[in-house]
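During the reporting period the student researcher (J.K.) took over the structure-prediction task from the postdoctoral fellow and processed the backlog of single-chain submissions. One of the processed entries is reproduced below for the supervisory committee.
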Amino acid sequence: MKRKQPYTLLGPFKEIVTMEGLPLKGPLKDEQLPIIANGGILLNGGHIEAVGAFESLAKKKEVLVQQPAVPGVVLPGFVDMHTHIAFGGSRANDFALRNAGSSYQEIARKGGGIWSTVKDTRALSRLQLAAITAEHAQHLLEQGITTIEVKSGYGLTVADELKLLQAIQDAALLTKADLVATCLAAHVVPNDFDGSPETYLEQVVTDLFPVIQQEQLTTRVDVFIEQGAFSAELAIPYLQQARKMGFDITVHADQFTPSGSEVAVRLNALSADHLEAATQREIDRLAKSNVIATALPGASMGLGCAFAPARKLLDAGCALAIATDWNPGSAPMGSLVLQAAVLASIEKLTNAEVLAAITFRAAAGLKLNDRGLLAPGYRADFAVYETDCYKEITYQQGRLQPSEVWKNGERI
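J.K. obtained the following structure tokens:
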């Protein structure tokens, strides 16, 4: 049967970095990057029909050629698989106190930290939170980030966590980016909760999870395992109950002390995020698992602490993702390429390792197998940069921004 509408052929581009054929785990060399010179992308609606030499694709029947405004370098749409962009208020005072010598934990004990953001977030309406979340998402989208994970966790009551997750759902209608919601009701025990941490988690499971499922607000549950948050002993049954109810699970792990990544491995979580305090023991366990190891360099920059041991994680055989951790406290920057480039300089990561960590390896951490590559059947999500060589993108550490961003085959 003859096709009624022609395919759209975009190109020619100087370089198309497809990311196709690279392994999910382990180190990568730049020589492994699949790069098509003078290439084209054949679009079939919101998906990719073919990627290859432009002249060859242009000879196909039923093709409508569309020359790009900038015939530069094309990369897959980036995936930011760990953010907290649904929040109210500012934590500029926390930043000043940290730089003056106070620790993260000391600031929290004095009423700052996560609790101050909780109070500011609770004060906002669902409509206001949706607008703020969409504004943050748009900032990321302009950087070529076409898929964004968004956590709750600044409500910390059943009603306020629901409001946050509903606001994230509303925000998804206000942006072209795909928003993937995650329930982080187990962020910390709220200061105004009259009960034990165990009782609080039981309340979340009993009163919040069923409503989340009924309203189809998210299929993902996260927990912060750390001193001052939740212990591994409490997190394990909480996550097991979440999984029993059908949720995918992920873990804030090893940010200040190790223990969280062990839980992630034991329960086969999708990802273990942070890992700044991971030792060789934790690295070896992660390498033997299917858990995506997620580095959050923005938090290290914001807190002035060590970076996740990305080089050791890769060399051990882990799947490394890199995300912004955009949040008002420790990582307010929201600049993925800058943060990834800084981590690359500190940890000696190749361009191939960085790009894999913010494309298909990050997508795996969200259990999304339809993006992160420029290949037939994948979503037509990509960014075009005005440059002759892909290496300029990390070299310029975020200064070089996309000239075009495409989502689902549409230039946005």
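The committee noted the following: The chain is about 35% helix and 20% strand.
J.K. will present the remaining backlog at the next meeting.
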